[in-house]
Amino acid sequence: MAYSFNGRCYATPEDVTTAVTSSFPRVDSTGMASLSGAPTVSASGLLSYSVQTSPYAGGGSMTAQVVQLQPCTQTWADYPLSFVVFVVAVFFALAMGFSHGKGLA
After folding, report:
1. Fewer Cβ close by (within 10 Å): the C or N end of the chain?
2. For position 79, what pLDDT does the model report?
3. H/E element holding 17?
4. From the CB of residue 17, how many other CB atoms can be counted at a distance below 10 Å?
5. 46 contact partners, CB below 8 Å, separation of at least 6
6. Residue 7: pLDDT band by 50, 70, 90 thresholds?
7. Could you give the CA distance from residue 69 to residue 66 in angstroms, rounded to a whole number?
8. What is the DSSP string of 46-104?
9. Full-model pTM
10. Cβ(13)–Cβ(5) below 8 Å
11. Mind listing the pLDDT tens digit for each residue in 27-66?
12. At residue 83, does pLDDT exceed 80?
Protein backbone atom coordinates (compact mmCIF):
# COMPACT_ATOMS: atom_id res chain seq x y z
CA MET A 1 0.00 0.00 0.00
CA ALA A 2 1.23 3.49 -0.84
CA TYR A 3 1.32 6.12 1.91
CA SER A 4 1.30 9.91 1.86
CA PHE A 5 3.92 11.69 3.99
CA ASN A 6 4.91 15.37 3.84
CA GLY A 7 2.99 15.90 0.62
CA ARG A 8 4.53 12.99 -1.29
CA CYS A 9 3.28 9.53 -2.09
CA TYR A 10 5.58 6.64 -1.14
CA ALA A 11 5.05 3.15 -2.59
CA THR A 12 6.04 1.16 0.52
CA PRO A 13 6.46 1.67 4.28
CA GLU A 14 10.22 1.24 3.75
CA ASP A 15 10.20 4.24 1.41
CA VAL A 16 8.51 6.32 4.12
CA THR A 17 11.09 5.35 6.74
CA THR A 18 13.88 6.13 4.27
CA ALA A 19 12.39 9.58 3.69
CA VAL A 20 12.23 10.23 7.44
CA THR A 21 15.78 8.97 7.99
CA SER A 22 17.19 11.07 5.15
CA SER A 23 15.74 14.26 6.63
CA PHE A 24 17.98 13.99 9.73
CA PRO A 25 20.15 15.32 11.25
CA ARG A 26 18.80 18.87 11.07
CA VAL A 27 21.01 21.75 12.11
CA ASP A 28 19.83 25.33 12.53
CA SER A 29 20.84 28.45 14.46
CA THR A 30 19.55 27.07 17.77
CA GLY A 31 20.95 23.55 17.73
CA MET A 32 20.67 20.11 16.21
CA ALA A 33 17.91 17.51 15.94
CA SER A 34 18.70 13.87 15.20
CA LEU A 35 16.87 10.57 15.07
CA SER A 36 17.13 8.28 18.04
CA GLY A 37 16.64 4.81 16.61
CA ALA A 38 15.04 3.70 13.38
CA PRO A 39 11.56 4.91 12.39
CA THR A 40 8.86 2.25 12.03
CA VAL A 41 5.54 1.96 10.22
CA SER A 42 2.90 -0.32 11.73
CA ALA A 43 0.50 -2.49 9.72
CA SER A 44 -2.21 0.14 10.29
CA GLY A 45 -0.01 2.90 8.81
CA LEU A 46 1.20 4.50 12.04
CA LEU A 47 4.65 6.09 11.61
CA SER A 48 6.66 6.28 14.85
CA TYR A 49 10.06 7.83 15.45
CA SER A 50 11.94 9.66 18.20
CA VAL A 51 13.84 12.91 17.80
CA GLN A 52 16.61 14.03 20.12
CA THR A 53 17.22 17.78 20.22
CA SER A 54 20.53 19.24 21.34
CA PRO A 55 20.45 23.03 21.74
CA TYR A 56 23.76 24.88 21.51
CA ALA A 57 22.96 26.47 24.88
CA GLY A 58 23.06 23.04 26.55
CA GLY A 59 20.46 20.61 27.76
CA GLY A 60 18.39 18.62 25.33
CA SER A 61 15.26 16.60 25.08
CA MET A 62 13.77 13.54 23.44
CA THR A 63 10.36 13.71 21.79
CA ALA A 64 8.36 10.88 20.29
CA GLN A 65 6.66 11.59 16.98
CA VAL A 66 3.64 9.56 15.90
CA VAL A 67 1.95 10.24 12.56
CA GLN A 68 -1.04 8.42 11.07
CA LEU A 69 -0.13 7.96 7.41
CA GLN A 70 -2.88 8.32 4.83
CA PRO A 71 -3.18 5.97 1.87
CA CYS A 72 -2.55 7.50 -1.54
CA THR A 73 -2.28 6.58 -5.18
CA GLN A 74 0.84 7.40 -7.12
CA THR A 75 0.60 9.91 -9.93
CA TRP A 76 3.03 10.91 -12.65
CA ALA A 77 4.17 13.77 -10.41
CA ASP A 78 5.61 11.23 -7.97
CA TYR A 79 8.07 9.81 -10.48
CA PRO A 80 11.40 11.52 -11.19
CA LEU A 81 11.54 13.43 -14.46
CA SER A 82 14.42 11.26 -15.68
CA PHE A 83 12.24 8.14 -15.38
CA VAL A 84 9.41 9.74 -17.38
CA VAL A 85 11.86 10.89 -20.08
CA PHE A 86 13.34 7.37 -20.22
CA VAL A 87 9.92 5.75 -20.71
CA VAL A 88 8.97 8.22 -23.45
CA ALA A 89 12.34 7.76 -25.20
CA VAL A 90 12.00 3.97 -25.17
CA PHE A 91 8.47 4.23 -26.56
CA PHE A 92 9.58 6.45 -29.45
CA ALA A 93 12.65 4.32 -30.15
CA LEU A 94 10.49 1.20 -30.40
CA ALA A 95 7.83 2.97 -32.48
CA MET A 96 10.40 4.36 -34.93
CA GLY A 97 12.21 1.03 -35.13
CA PHE A 98 9.04 -0.85 -36.01
CA SER A 99 7.91 1.74 -38.56
CA HIS A 100 11.28 1.69 -40.38
CA GLY A 101 11.43 -2.09 -40.41
CA LYS A 102 8.19 -2.54 -42.40
CA GLY A 103 9.60 -2.31 -45.93
CA LEU A 104 12.66 -4.53 -45.49
CA ALA A 105 11.13 -7.95 -46.28
Report:
1. C
2. 65
3. helix 13-22
4. 19
5. 66, 67, 68, 69
6. confident
7. 9
8. EEEEEEEEEETTS--EEEEEEEEPEE----GGGS-HHHHHHHHHHHHHHHHHHHHTGGG
9. 0.64
10. no
11. 999 999 999 999 999 999 999 999 999 999 888 899 999 9
12. no
Contact 14, 79 (CB under 8 A): no
Cα–Cα distance measured from residue 33 to residue 27, given in angstroms and rounded to the nearest whole number: 7
- Residue 13, preceding bond cis, omega within 30 degrees? no
Distance CA 56, CA 14 (A): 33
* Residue 62 neighbours by CB under 8 Å, 6+ apart: 36, 50, 51, 52, 53
